[in-house]
Protein 1
Amino acid sequence: MIKRTGLWPVLFLCVAFLPSARAGSSADLPAISIIIDDMGKRLESGRRVLALPGPVACAFLPRARHTDYLARQAHTAGREILLHLPMDSVDGRRLDAGAVTLDMTEKQFAATVAADLGAVPYVTGINNHMGSLLTRHPGHMLWLMRAMQQQAGLFFVDSRTTVATVAKRVAMENAVPSTERNVFLDNELGADAIAFQFERLLALARKQGTALAIGHPHPQTLAFLEQQLPQLGQRGFRLLPVRDLIELQQQGENTWQASWSPSHRGVKN
Protein backbone atom coordinates (compact mmCIF):
# COMPACT_ATOMS: atom_id res chain seq x y z
CA MET A 1 0.00 0.00 0.00
CA ILE A 2 1.34 3.40 -1.03
CA LYS A 3 1.38 6.04 1.66
CA ARG A 4 0.32 9.56 0.74
CA THR A 5 3.38 11.06 2.29
CA GLY A 6 6.53 10.90 0.24
CA LEU A 7 5.54 8.91 -2.85
CA TRP A 8 2.34 10.72 -3.94
CA PRO A 9 4.08 13.97 -4.95
CA VAL A 10 6.59 11.94 -6.91
CA LEU A 11 3.86 9.94 -8.68
CA PHE A 12 1.97 13.15 -9.50
CA LEU A 13 5.06 14.68 -11.09
CA CYS A 14 5.70 11.55 -13.13
CA VAL A 15 2.14 11.56 -14.51
CA ALA A 16 2.18 15.30 -15.15
CA PHE A 17 5.21 15.06 -17.35
CA LEU A 18 4.27 11.97 -19.33
CA PRO A 19 4.31 12.79 -23.07
CA SER A 20 0.86 13.24 -24.53
CA ALA A 21 -0.35 11.43 -27.66
CA ARG A 22 0.02 14.72 -29.53
CA ALA A 23 3.63 15.11 -28.44
CA GLY A 24 4.42 11.68 -29.81
CA SER A 25 2.77 12.29 -33.20
CA SER A 26 4.74 12.66 -36.40
CA ALA A 27 3.45 16.23 -36.77
CA ASP A 28 5.60 17.22 -33.80
CA LEU A 29 8.85 15.82 -35.18
CA PRO A 30 11.47 18.28 -36.41
CA ALA A 31 11.15 18.68 -40.18
CA ILE A 32 13.71 18.93 -42.97
CA SER A 33 13.50 19.51 -46.71
CA ILE A 34 16.15 18.62 -49.29
CA ILE A 35 16.60 20.12 -52.75
CA ILE A 36 18.87 18.56 -55.37
CA ASP A 37 20.22 21.32 -57.64
CA ASP A 38 21.71 21.22 -61.15
CA MET A 39 19.16 18.74 -62.43
CA GLY A 40 18.82 18.19 -66.18
CA LYS A 41 22.46 17.91 -67.17
CA ARG A 42 22.84 14.14 -66.89
CA LEU A 43 20.19 11.52 -67.46
CA GLU A 44 21.42 8.66 -65.27
CA SER A 45 22.15 10.78 -62.20
CA GLY A 46 18.78 12.48 -62.68
CA ARG A 47 17.01 9.13 -62.66
CA ARG A 48 18.89 8.20 -59.52
CA VAL A 49 17.65 11.39 -57.83
CA LEU A 50 14.07 10.50 -58.77
CA ALA A 51 14.51 7.11 -57.11
CA LEU A 52 15.49 8.62 -53.74
CA PRO A 53 13.04 7.77 -50.95
CA GLY A 54 10.74 10.55 -49.77
CA PRO A 55 9.75 13.96 -51.17
CA VAL A 56 13.18 15.20 -52.26
CA ALA A 57 12.70 18.31 -54.44
CA CYS A 58 14.37 18.67 -57.85
CA ALA A 59 15.75 22.00 -59.12
CA PHE A 60 16.23 22.02 -62.90
CA LEU A 61 18.48 24.24 -64.98
CA PRO A 62 16.16 25.76 -67.61
CA ARG A 63 18.14 24.96 -70.76
CA ALA A 64 19.87 21.74 -69.75
CA ARG A 65 19.66 18.87 -72.21
CA HIS A 66 17.48 16.53 -70.15
CA THR A 67 15.41 19.07 -68.19
CA ASP A 68 12.14 18.60 -70.06
CA TYR A 69 12.21 14.81 -69.91
CA LEU A 70 13.37 14.52 -66.31
CA ALA A 71 10.98 17.19 -65.05
CA ARG A 72 8.07 15.29 -66.57
CA GLN A 73 9.34 12.09 -64.96
CA ALA A 74 9.70 13.94 -61.66
CA HIS A 75 6.11 15.15 -61.88
CA THR A 76 4.90 11.61 -62.54
CA ALA A 77 6.85 10.47 -59.48
CA GLY A 78 5.19 13.17 -57.36
CA ARG A 79 8.33 15.27 -56.93
CA GLU A 80 8.40 18.99 -56.34
CA ILE A 81 9.95 20.81 -59.33
CA LEU A 82 11.88 24.06 -59.11
CA LEU A 83 13.48 26.29 -61.71
CA HIS A 84 17.16 26.49 -60.80
CA LEU A 85 17.59 30.02 -62.14
CA PRO A 86 21.16 30.93 -63.21
CA MET A 87 22.28 34.33 -61.87
CA ASP A 88 25.38 36.52 -61.98
CA SER A 89 28.04 35.70 -59.41
CA VAL A 90 30.77 37.91 -57.96
CA ASP A 91 33.56 35.75 -59.36
CA GLY A 92 32.32 36.23 -62.92
CA ARG A 93 32.21 32.52 -63.69
CA ARG A 94 30.58 31.36 -66.92
CA LEU A 95 26.80 31.35 -66.68
CA ASP A 96 24.48 28.56 -67.75
CA ALA A 97 22.00 29.29 -70.53
CA GLY A 98 18.93 31.20 -69.40
CA ALA A 99 20.81 33.33 -66.88
CA VAL A 100 19.64 36.69 -65.55
CA THR A 101 22.39 39.29 -65.25
CA LEU A 102 23.09 42.61 -63.63
CA ASP A 103 23.22 44.51 -66.93
CA MET A 104 19.70 43.51 -68.06
CA THR A 105 16.80 45.92 -68.24
CA GLU A 106 13.69 44.98 -66.29
CA LYS A 107 11.98 44.00 -69.54
CA GLN A 108 14.85 41.71 -70.52
CA PHE A 109 15.00 40.28 -67.01
CA ALA A 110 11.26 39.51 -66.89
CA ALA A 111 11.29 37.99 -70.38
CA THR A 112 14.19 35.70 -69.44
CA VAL A 113 12.51 34.51 -66.24
CA ALA A 114 9.25 33.88 -68.10
CA ALA A 115 11.05 31.87 -70.78
CA ASP A 116 12.93 29.86 -68.16
CA LEU A 117 9.73 29.06 -66.29
CA GLY A 118 8.21 27.93 -69.54
CA ALA A 119 11.14 25.59 -70.16
CA VAL A 120 10.61 23.62 -66.93
CA PRO A 121 7.38 21.56 -66.99
CA TYR A 122 5.23 21.54 -63.83
CA VAL A 123 7.42 24.11 -62.08
CA THR A 124 6.23 25.13 -58.60
CA GLY A 125 9.09 27.28 -57.32
CA ILE A 126 12.42 28.97 -58.03
CA ASN A 127 15.82 28.88 -56.39
CA ASN A 128 18.97 30.63 -57.52
CA HIS A 129 21.92 28.95 -59.24
CA MET A 130 25.04 30.89 -58.21
CA GLY A 131 23.79 34.51 -57.86
CA SER A 132 26.22 35.84 -55.28
CA LEU A 133 26.23 39.12 -57.23
CA LEU A 134 22.59 39.44 -58.24
CA THR A 135 20.93 38.38 -54.99
CA ARG A 136 22.50 41.32 -53.14
CA HIS A 137 20.69 43.82 -55.41
CA PRO A 138 17.19 44.70 -54.10
CA GLY A 139 16.05 46.13 -57.44
CA HIS A 140 16.80 42.95 -59.38
CA MET A 141 15.26 40.80 -56.68
CA LEU A 142 12.14 42.96 -56.88
CA TRP A 143 12.04 42.29 -60.63
CA LEU A 144 12.26 38.57 -59.88
CA MET A 145 9.38 38.65 -57.42
CA ARG A 146 7.26 40.63 -59.87
CA ALA A 147 8.00 38.08 -62.57
CA MET A 148 7.07 35.25 -60.19
CA GLN A 149 3.78 36.93 -59.37
CA GLN A 150 2.81 36.62 -63.03
CA GLN A 151 2.52 32.86 -62.48
CA ALA A 152 0.35 32.16 -59.46
CA GLY A 153 1.47 29.88 -56.67
CA LEU A 154 5.24 29.95 -57.07
CA PHE A 155 7.50 29.91 -54.03
CA PHE A 156 11.11 31.09 -53.75
CA VAL A 157 14.09 29.47 -52.03
CA ASP A 158 17.11 31.65 -51.40
CA SER A 159 20.12 29.40 -51.91
CA ARG A 160 22.18 31.88 -49.87
CA THR A 161 25.28 31.86 -52.05
CA THR A 162 26.35 35.06 -50.28
CA VAL A 163 25.83 36.40 -46.77
CA ALA A 164 24.90 39.74 -48.41
CA THR A 165 21.78 38.32 -50.03
CA VAL A 166 18.52 40.27 -49.78
CA ALA A 167 16.49 37.81 -51.86
CA LYS A 168 14.38 36.24 -49.10
CA ARG A 169 13.67 39.62 -47.53
CA VAL A 170 12.47 41.06 -50.84
CA ALA A 171 10.35 37.94 -51.42
CA MET A 172 8.68 38.37 -48.04
CA GLU A 173 8.10 42.08 -48.67
CA ASN A 174 6.25 41.14 -51.86
CA ALA A 175 4.19 38.31 -50.36
CA VAL A 176 6.03 35.58 -52.27
CA PRO A 177 6.18 32.42 -50.11
CA SER A 178 9.84 31.87 -49.36
CA THR A 179 12.49 30.19 -47.28
CA GLU A 180 16.26 29.86 -47.35
CA ARG A 181 18.96 27.25 -47.46
CA ASN A 182 20.49 26.32 -44.12
CA VAL A 183 23.08 23.74 -45.19
CA PHE A 184 24.96 22.79 -48.36
CA LEU A 185 25.43 19.03 -48.15
CA ASP A 186 28.26 18.63 -50.60
CA ASN A 187 30.51 21.65 -50.96
CA GLU A 188 33.10 19.00 -50.11
CA LEU A 189 32.55 15.57 -51.63
CA GLY A 190 34.21 13.33 -49.07
CA ALA A 191 31.90 10.91 -47.29
CA ASP A 192 32.83 12.32 -43.90
CA ALA A 193 32.21 15.89 -45.05
CA ILE A 194 28.76 15.06 -46.42
CA ALA A 195 27.88 13.19 -43.23
CA PHE A 196 29.02 16.16 -41.14
CA GLN A 197 26.80 18.56 -43.07
CA PHE A 198 23.85 16.19 -42.83
CA GLU A 199 24.24 16.02 -39.07
CA ARG A 200 24.37 19.84 -39.02
CA LEU A 201 21.06 19.83 -40.88
CA LEU A 202 19.45 17.54 -38.32
CA ALA A 203 20.87 19.52 -35.41
CA LEU A 204 19.44 22.76 -36.83
CA ALA A 205 16.05 21.10 -37.36
CA ARG A 206 16.09 19.80 -33.81
CA LYS A 207 16.92 23.27 -32.49
CA GLN A 208 14.71 25.38 -34.76
CA GLY A 209 11.97 22.95 -35.72
CA THR A 210 12.76 23.09 -39.45
CA ALA A 211 15.82 23.20 -41.71
CA LEU A 212 16.52 23.01 -45.44
CA ALA A 213 19.50 21.50 -47.25
CA ILE A 214 20.70 21.76 -50.83
CA GLY A 215 22.74 19.05 -52.49
CA HIS A 216 23.76 18.07 -56.00
CA PRO A 217 23.48 14.90 -58.10
CA HIS A 218 27.01 13.76 -57.30
CA PRO A 219 27.48 10.00 -56.83
CA GLN A 220 28.80 10.57 -53.31
CA THR A 221 25.79 12.68 -52.30
CA LEU A 222 23.25 10.28 -53.78
CA ALA A 223 24.88 7.24 -52.18
CA PHE A 224 24.75 8.95 -48.80
CA LEU A 225 21.08 9.97 -49.17
CA GLU A 226 20.08 6.53 -50.39
CA GLN A 227 21.45 5.13 -47.15
CA GLN A 228 20.32 7.81 -44.72
CA LEU A 229 16.85 8.94 -45.84
CA PRO A 230 15.10 5.65 -44.97
CA GLN A 231 16.35 6.06 -41.39
CA LEU A 232 14.97 9.56 -40.79
CA GLY A 233 11.76 8.40 -39.11
CA GLN A 234 13.64 6.12 -36.74
CA ARG A 235 15.90 9.03 -35.84
CA GLY A 236 12.92 11.24 -35.03
CA PHE A 237 12.73 13.47 -38.11
CA ARG A 238 10.35 13.93 -41.01
CA LEU A 239 11.13 14.86 -44.61
CA LEU A 240 8.73 17.41 -46.10
CA PRO A 241 8.15 18.95 -49.51
CA VAL A 242 9.55 22.48 -49.61
CA ARG A 243 6.12 24.09 -49.86
CA ASP A 244 5.01 22.27 -46.71
CA LEU A 245 8.14 23.41 -44.91
CA ILE A 246 7.44 27.02 -45.91
CA GLU A 247 3.85 26.75 -44.68
CA LEU A 248 5.06 25.26 -41.42
CA GLN A 249 7.45 28.15 -40.92
CA GLN A 250 4.90 30.80 -41.88
CA GLN A 251 2.07 29.44 -39.79
CA GLY A 252 4.21 28.91 -36.72
CA GLU A 253 2.80 25.41 -36.22
CA ASN A 254 6.07 23.91 -35.11
CA THR A 255 6.70 23.72 -31.38
CA TRP A 256 10.00 25.52 -31.65
CA GLN A 257 8.57 28.77 -33.11
CA ALA A 258 11.64 29.02 -35.32
CA SER A 259 13.39 32.33 -35.64
CA TRP A 260 14.85 32.61 -39.15
CA SER A 261 18.01 34.64 -38.87
CA PRO A 262 20.61 34.83 -41.64
CA SER A 263 23.37 32.30 -41.17
CA HIS A 264 25.70 30.43 -42.21
CA ARG A 265 29.24 29.75 -43.18
CA GLY A 266 30.48 27.93 -46.23
CA VAL A 267 28.62 29.83 -48.94
CA LYS A 268 28.80 28.47 -52.43
CA ASN A 269 30.28 31.45 -54.29
Note: The longest helix spans residues 191-208.
Protein 2
Amino acid sequence: MPRAALWMAGWLSLMVVLAIVGRGVTRQLPVFQVMEVRSLLGLLMLAPLVHAAGGFGALRTAFIGRHITRNVVHYAAQYGWFAALTLIPLAQLISIEFTMPLWTALLAAAFLAERLTTRKVLAVAVGLIGVAVIVRPTAGAVEPGQLIALVAAGGFAVSVVLVKSLTRTDSAVAIIFWMLVIQSVIGFLPALWTWQWPTPATWAGLVVIAFCGTFSHYCMTRAMRHADATVVIPMDFLRVPLTALAAWLVYAEAVDGWTVLGAALILGANALNLLRKPAAAGAGQAATR
Protein backbone atom coordinates (compact mmCIF):
# COMPACT_ATOMS: atom_id res chain seq x y z
CA MET A 1 0.00 0.00 0.00
CA PRO A 2 2.73 2.62 0.80
CA ARG A 3 4.38 1.90 -2.55
CA ALA A 4 1.07 2.40 -4.36
CA ALA A 5 0.67 5.74 -2.58
CA LEU A 6 4.15 6.88 -3.63
CA TRP A 7 3.57 5.98 -7.27
CA MET A 8 0.21 7.74 -7.15
CA ALA A 9 1.96 10.87 -5.84
CA GLY A 10 4.00 10.87 -9.04
CA TRP A 11 0.83 10.40 -11.11
CA LEU A 12 -0.91 13.28 -9.34
CA SER A 13 1.97 15.72 -9.79
CA LEU A 14 2.39 14.96 -13.47
CA MET A 15 -1.34 15.06 -14.23
CA VAL A 16 -1.76 18.49 -12.62
CA VAL A 17 1.09 19.88 -14.72
CA LEU A 18 -0.37 18.19 -17.81
CA ALA A 19 -3.74 19.87 -17.27
CA ILE A 20 -2.25 23.33 -16.75
CA VAL A 21 0.16 23.18 -19.70
CA GLY A 22 -2.29 21.27 -21.92
CA ARG A 23 -4.86 24.05 -21.70
CA GLY A 24 -2.42 26.55 -23.16
CA VAL A 25 -1.04 24.26 -25.88
CA THR A 26 -4.45 23.07 -27.13
CA ARG A 27 -5.40 26.70 -27.67
CA GLN A 28 -2.50 26.95 -30.12
CA LEU A 29 -2.54 23.59 -31.91
CA PRO A 30 -5.11 20.97 -33.05
CA VAL A 31 -5.76 18.21 -30.51
CA PHE A 32 -4.73 15.46 -32.96
CA GLN A 33 -1.34 17.11 -33.41
CA VAL A 34 -0.81 17.53 -29.67
CA MET A 35 -1.57 13.86 -29.07
CA GLU A 36 0.66 12.64 -31.91
CA VAL A 37 3.67 14.70 -30.85
CA ARG A 38 3.08 13.57 -27.28
CA SER A 39 3.25 9.90 -28.33
CA LEU A 40 6.33 10.30 -30.56
CA LEU A 41 8.28 12.31 -28.00
CA GLY A 42 7.13 9.87 -25.35
CA LEU A 43 8.76 7.00 -27.22
CA LEU A 44 12.09 8.84 -27.14
CA MET A 45 11.71 9.61 -23.44
CA LEU A 46 10.86 5.99 -22.69
CA ALA A 47 14.04 4.67 -24.35
CA PRO A 48 16.17 4.64 -21.14
CA LEU A 49 13.52 2.61 -19.32
CA VAL A 50 13.28 0.20 -22.27
CA HIS A 51 17.06 -0.26 -22.17
CA ALA A 52 17.02 -0.79 -18.39
CA ALA A 53 14.23 -3.36 -18.74
CA GLY A 54 16.33 -5.49 -21.10
CA GLY A 55 15.74 -3.93 -24.50
CA PHE A 56 13.00 -4.55 -27.02
CA GLY A 57 13.03 -8.28 -26.34
CA ALA A 58 11.55 -7.60 -22.90
CA LEU A 59 8.60 -5.79 -24.48
CA ARG A 60 7.13 -8.84 -26.17
CA THR A 61 3.54 -9.55 -25.26
CA ALA A 62 1.13 -12.41 -25.77
CA PHE A 63 -1.81 -10.03 -25.50
CA ILE A 64 -1.33 -7.57 -28.34
CA GLY A 65 -5.07 -7.62 -29.04
CA ARG A 66 -5.78 -6.48 -25.50
CA HIS A 67 -3.20 -3.71 -25.88
CA ILE A 68 -4.84 -2.55 -29.10
CA THR A 69 -8.31 -2.57 -27.54
CA ARG A 70 -7.11 -0.67 -24.50
CA ASN A 71 -5.35 1.97 -26.57
CA VAL A 72 -8.17 2.52 -29.04
CA VAL A 73 -10.45 3.22 -26.08
CA HIS A 74 -7.82 5.31 -24.31
CA TYR A 75 -7.01 7.31 -27.45
CA ALA A 76 -10.67 8.21 -27.92
CA ALA A 77 -11.04 9.12 -24.24
CA GLN A 78 -7.84 11.16 -24.30
CA TYR A 79 -8.99 13.05 -27.40
CA GLY A 80 -12.27 13.82 -25.63
CA TRP A 81 -10.38 15.04 -22.55
CA PHE A 82 -8.17 17.40 -24.56
CA ALA A 83 -11.14 18.60 -26.63
CA ALA A 84 -13.16 19.30 -23.48
CA LEU A 85 -10.16 21.17 -22.11
CA THR A 86 -10.75 23.78 -24.84
CA LEU A 87 -14.53 23.98 -24.24
CA ILE A 88 -15.17 24.13 -20.48
CA PRO A 89 -13.37 25.47 -17.37
CA LEU A 90 -10.51 23.38 -16.03
CA ALA A 91 -12.11 22.78 -12.62
CA GLN A 92 -15.31 21.62 -14.29
CA LEU A 93 -13.45 19.22 -16.58
CA ILE A 94 -11.54 17.64 -13.70
CA SER A 95 -14.72 17.28 -11.64
CA ILE A 96 -16.60 15.52 -14.45
CA GLU A 97 -13.58 13.30 -15.04
CA PHE A 98 -13.95 12.13 -11.46
CA THR A 99 -17.02 10.14 -12.34
CA MET A 100 -14.35 7.71 -13.63
CA PRO A 101 -13.62 6.09 -10.22
CA LEU A 102 -17.26 5.04 -9.92
CA TRP A 103 -17.20 3.33 -13.31
CA THR A 104 -13.77 1.86 -12.57
CA ALA A 105 -14.87 0.35 -9.27
CA LEU A 106 -17.90 -1.26 -10.89
CA LEU A 107 -15.93 -2.57 -13.88
CA ALA A 108 -13.09 -3.90 -11.69
CA ALA A 109 -15.61 -5.76 -9.54
CA ALA A 110 -17.38 -7.17 -12.60
CA PHE A 111 -14.37 -8.19 -14.72
CA LEU A 112 -11.33 -8.41 -12.41
CA ALA A 113 -13.03 -10.13 -9.48
CA GLU A 114 -11.95 -7.33 -7.13
CA ARG A 115 -14.03 -7.04 -3.95
CA LEU A 116 -16.44 -4.11 -3.95
CA THR A 117 -16.82 -3.72 -0.19
CA THR A 118 -19.14 -1.32 1.59
CA ARG A 119 -16.12 0.70 2.71
CA LYS A 120 -14.86 1.12 -0.86
CA VAL A 121 -18.31 2.13 -2.10
CA LEU A 122 -18.58 4.65 0.73
CA ALA A 123 -15.12 6.04 -0.04
CA VAL A 124 -16.04 6.58 -3.69
CA ALA A 125 -19.37 8.19 -2.71
CA VAL A 126 -17.76 10.59 -0.22
CA GLY A 127 -15.08 11.49 -2.76
CA LEU A 128 -17.65 12.27 -5.42
CA ILE A 129 -19.57 14.43 -2.93
CA GLY A 130 -16.33 16.33 -2.30
CA VAL A 131 -15.90 16.89 -6.04
CA ALA A 132 -19.47 18.20 -6.30
CA VAL A 133 -18.91 20.55 -3.35
CA ILE A 134 -15.81 22.03 -5.00
CA VAL A 135 -17.39 22.60 -8.40
CA ARG A 136 -21.03 23.29 -7.37
CA PRO A 137 -22.44 22.87 -10.91
CA THR A 138 -25.08 25.46 -11.73
CA ALA A 139 -28.51 24.65 -13.12
CA GLY A 140 -29.01 24.91 -16.86
CA ALA A 141 -28.47 23.12 -20.14
CA VAL A 142 -25.58 20.66 -20.36
CA GLU A 143 -22.84 22.00 -22.58
CA PRO A 144 -21.26 19.84 -25.33
CA GLY A 145 -17.92 20.00 -23.51
CA GLN A 146 -19.52 18.54 -20.40
CA LEU A 147 -20.97 15.61 -22.34
CA ILE A 148 -17.63 14.99 -24.06
CA ALA A 149 -15.87 15.01 -20.68
CA LEU A 150 -18.40 12.55 -19.26
CA VAL A 151 -17.95 10.11 -22.16
CA ALA A 152 -14.16 10.48 -21.83
CA ALA A 153 -14.42 9.57 -18.14
CA GLY A 154 -16.20 6.34 -19.05
CA GLY A 155 -13.51 5.57 -21.61
CA PHE A 156 -10.76 6.16 -19.07
CA ALA A 157 -12.50 3.74 -16.69
CA VAL A 158 -12.47 0.99 -19.32
CA SER A 159 -8.81 1.75 -20.01
CA VAL A 160 -7.90 1.54 -16.31
CA VAL A 161 -9.52 -1.88 -15.96
CA LEU A 162 -7.71 -3.16 -19.06
CA VAL A 163 -4.40 -1.81 -17.70
CA LYS A 164 -4.99 -3.61 -14.43
CA SER A 165 -5.50 -6.89 -16.30
CA LEU A 166 -2.36 -6.29 -18.36
CA THR A 167 -0.21 -5.71 -15.25
CA ARG A 168 -0.72 -9.39 -14.42
CA THR A 169 1.31 -10.43 -17.47
CA ASP A 170 3.23 -7.44 -18.85
CA SER A 171 5.67 -4.99 -17.27
CA ALA A 172 4.85 -1.32 -16.78
CA VAL A 173 7.42 -0.37 -19.42
CA ALA A 174 5.88 -2.78 -21.94
CA ILE A 175 2.39 -1.39 -21.31
CA ILE A 176 3.55 2.19 -21.83
CA PHE A 177 5.64 1.24 -24.88
CA TRP A 178 2.71 -0.39 -26.64
CA MET A 179 0.48 2.52 -25.69
CA LEU A 180 2.80 5.00 -27.36
CA VAL A 181 3.36 2.84 -30.45
CA ILE A 182 -0.30 2.03 -31.01
CA GLN A 183 -1.50 5.57 -30.38
CA SER A 184 1.20 6.97 -32.68
CA VAL A 185 -0.14 4.76 -35.47
CA ILE A 186 -3.76 5.68 -34.73
CA GLY A 187 -3.10 9.41 -34.74
CA PHE A 188 -0.54 9.74 -37.54
CA LEU A 189 -2.88 10.58 -40.43
CA PRO A 190 -5.23 12.86 -38.42
CA ALA A 191 -2.20 14.77 -37.07
CA LEU A 192 -0.67 15.06 -40.55
CA TRP A 193 -3.97 16.37 -41.93
CA THR A 194 -4.32 19.07 -39.24
CA TRP A 195 -0.62 19.89 -38.78
CA GLN A 196 0.41 23.44 -37.83
CA TRP A 197 4.04 24.27 -37.14
CA PRO A 198 4.48 25.10 -33.43
CA THR A 199 6.29 28.15 -32.09
CA PRO A 200 9.36 27.56 -29.85
CA ALA A 201 7.24 28.21 -26.75
CA THR A 202 4.59 25.76 -27.93
CA TRP A 203 7.29 23.16 -28.62
CA ALA A 204 8.40 23.52 -25.00
CA GLY A 205 4.81 22.93 -23.89
CA LEU A 206 4.61 19.83 -26.09
CA VAL A 207 7.75 18.43 -24.47
CA VAL A 208 6.22 18.95 -21.02
CA ILE A 209 2.97 17.29 -22.13
CA ALA A 210 4.90 14.32 -23.56
CA PHE A 211 6.92 13.88 -20.37
CA CYS A 212 3.91 14.17 -18.07
CA GLY A 213 1.69 12.01 -20.28
CA THR A 214 4.27 9.24 -20.60
CA PHE A 215 5.53 8.97 -17.05
CA SER A 216 2.16 9.63 -15.38
CA HIS A 217 0.96 6.41 -16.99
CA TYR A 218 4.11 4.65 -15.83
CA CYS A 219 3.38 5.79 -12.27
CA MET A 220 -0.26 4.66 -12.50
CA THR A 221 0.74 1.27 -13.89
CA ARG A 222 3.29 0.73 -11.11
CA ALA A 223 0.73 1.81 -8.49
CA MET A 224 -1.69 -0.82 -9.76
CA ARG A 225 0.92 -3.51 -9.24
CA HIS A 226 0.77 -2.77 -5.51
CA ALA A 227 -2.98 -2.29 -4.93
CA ASP A 228 -6.42 -2.97 -6.39
CA ALA A 229 -7.86 -0.50 -8.88
CA THR A 230 -10.60 0.33 -6.38
CA VAL A 231 -7.90 1.40 -3.89
CA VAL A 232 -5.58 3.20 -6.32
CA ILE A 233 -8.19 5.27 -8.16
CA PRO A 234 -9.76 7.00 -5.11
CA MET A 235 -6.28 8.35 -4.29
CA ASP A 236 -6.61 10.29 -7.52
CA PHE A 237 -9.31 12.44 -5.86
CA LEU A 238 -6.42 14.52 -4.52
CA ARG A 239 -5.96 15.84 -8.06
CA VAL A 240 -9.00 18.07 -7.58
CA PRO A 241 -7.64 20.25 -4.74
CA LEU A 242 -4.17 20.16 -6.30
CA THR A 243 -5.55 21.36 -9.62
CA ALA A 244 -7.56 24.06 -7.83
CA LEU A 245 -4.35 25.25 -6.15
CA ALA A 246 -2.44 25.24 -9.45
CA ALA A 247 -5.27 27.15 -11.15
CA TRP A 248 -5.10 29.74 -8.38
CA LEU A 249 -1.33 30.11 -8.79
CA VAL A 250 -1.29 30.16 -12.62
CA TYR A 251 -4.66 31.67 -13.55
CA ALA A 252 -5.45 33.55 -10.32
CA GLU A 253 -8.66 31.53 -9.82
CA ALA A 254 -9.93 32.03 -6.28
CA VAL A 255 -10.00 29.14 -3.80
CA ASP A 256 -12.99 29.60 -1.49
CA GLY A 257 -14.35 27.82 1.58
CA TRP A 258 -16.34 25.39 -0.56
CA THR A 259 -13.11 24.22 -2.19
CA VAL A 260 -11.54 23.68 1.23
CA LEU A 261 -14.61 21.69 2.36
CA GLY A 262 -14.56 19.57 -0.79
CA ALA A 263 -10.86 18.87 -0.39
CA ALA A 264 -11.47 17.77 3.21
CA LEU A 265 -14.16 15.32 2.06
CA ILE A 266 -11.84 13.94 -0.62
CA LEU A 267 -9.00 13.46 1.85
CA GLY A 268 -11.43 11.77 4.23
CA ALA A 269 -12.56 9.42 1.46
CA ASN A 270 -8.97 8.43 0.74
CA ALA A 271 -8.24 7.86 4.43
CA LEU A 272 -11.35 5.71 4.71
CA ASN A 273 -10.35 3.64 1.72
CA LEU A 274 -6.82 3.09 3.01
CA LEU A 275 -7.86 1.97 6.49
CA ARG A 276 -7.48 -1.73 7.21
CA LYS A 277 -9.09 -3.78 9.89
CA PRO A 278 -6.49 -4.92 12.48
CA ALA A 279 -7.32 -8.59 11.98
CA ALA A 280 -6.93 -8.35 8.24
CA ALA A 281 -3.64 -6.50 8.59
CA GLY A 282 -2.27 -9.12 10.95
CA ALA A 283 -3.28 -11.92 8.65
CA GLY A 284 -1.53 -10.21 5.79
CA GLN A 285 1.69 -9.85 7.75
CA ALA A 286 1.64 -13.47 8.81
CA ALA A 287 1.16 -14.60 5.27
CA THR A 288 4.32 -12.79 4.14
CA ARG A 289 6.66 -14.28 6.74
Note: The longest helix spans residues 2-26.
